[in-house]
Structure formats: structure tokens, C-alpha cells
Amino acid sequence: MDEQIRQIAERIGGLRDALDLTIEEMADRCRMTADEYRRIESGEHDIAVSTLQQIARRFEIPLDVLMFGEEPKMNSYFLTRKGTGISVERTKAYKYQSLASGFRGRIADPFIVTVEPKPDDTPIYYNTHGGQEFNLVIEGRMLLSINGKDLVLNEGDSLYFDSSLPHGMKALDGKTVKFLAVIMQ
């Protein structure tokens, strides 16, 4: 996990270097503080996929380039067989598996997200990003908190929401939860 985050951070630093921007200029263009940006580029902290998506869209590069270091190649279709999508484990309790990483010019980013259970007193990490998001629970149960409203989603339940609202989730019942997340800008 730490190695993957470090590699992502290096790719972001490489992008900044290629654009010949200072940390302050890059942070400003990404609509964040210089300290927030420094933490991202340091590779010592988890980087939210929504933040990566924000950077990718701001500089008009595929999200896959930042996440996986690969340029999408397909523009007609892209097939992902069960269990074969490129994955990134952002923390020990959070794993994203991209389902469309090889499709060039996509307008949505679908992922299978696996969230490991944490102690009940662990606070939820909240996230915001532009656009909209769709979540469909495949396995387990999860608490999804959106803008202060707590919703329990069971297997087969889905939710479509404005992802600019603060949102976060956690696995329930001490079991792993898997869900389909589709992030649209």
C-alpha cells in the first residue's frame, strides 16, 4: 500500500515538474492549499481517489495515468474480467479496483471498492469532489454518511448522490463490504 501511494505521489510530482509549476502554483490550480498539496506529493499520506480525479481532470490527463502509470488505449470498448481490474490499495482498509482503466476518454470512472471493517469508534473519513456518484452494494453492509445524514445500505441497495457534499463510508457488522462506485464529473 505505501509503495503504491509513493508511486502515485511521484507521478503527481512528475506532472508538476513537466508543467514547470511551483508547489504553490500547482496547489492553486488544484484548488487546494500549498500544505495540502505538499502532503499529496510527499507520498507519506493517503490520497483520495476524488483528489486524483480532480487533478487529472484539471490537467486533462486520464485518471489511470496518475493511479496506475498507464495510458488508456481503447476507445471502442474495454473488457475487465472478474478480479482482473487494476487495483490500488489506498489504506489497509480501502481498495479500489478500476473497471475501465483501459478506456480512453471516459466520462465516468467505475470501481469495485472493498472496505475492511474498523473498530466501531473509528471516525468516518469524509470526502468531497465535483460531479455525482453512484454506489451499489455487492456484498456486506455499509454506513454511508452524506452531508450529516447516515444511511445504511444492505446488499443490493444503491444510492445516487451529489458528490460535492461531504460523504464517507464504513463497513458494518465487522465484515468486509464490496460495492460498485461510479464517479461521474
Description:
By secondary structure, the chain is an alpha+beta fold. The protein has two domains: 2-68, Orthogonal Bundle (434 Repressor (Amino-terminal Domain)); 87-184, Sandwich (Jelly Rolls). Helices cover 26% and strands 29% of the residues. It contains five helices and nine strands, in the order αααααβββββββββ. The chain has helices at 2-18, 23-29, 34-42, 49-58, 63-68; strands at residues 87-91, 94-98, 108-115, 132-139, 142-146, 149-153, 158-162, 167-171, 177-184. It has a six-stranded antiparallel sheet. The protein has a three-stranded antiparallel sheet with strand order 6-5-8, with no helix packed on it. It is globular, with a radius of gyration of 16 Å. The relative contact order is 0.15. The model has no long low-confidence stretch (mean pLDDT 87).
Category by helix and strand content: alpha+beta
The CATH topology label of the largest domain is Jelly Rolls
Number of strands: 9
Rg is 16 Å
Instruction: Give the SSE order as H and E letters.
Output: HHHHHEEEEEEEEE
In which order are the strands of the major sheet placed?
1-2-3-9-4-7
Main attributes of the structure:
single chain; 185 residues; alpha+beta; 434 Repressor (Amino-terminal Domain); Jelly Rolls; 6-stranded antiparallel β-sheet; RmlC-like_jellyroll
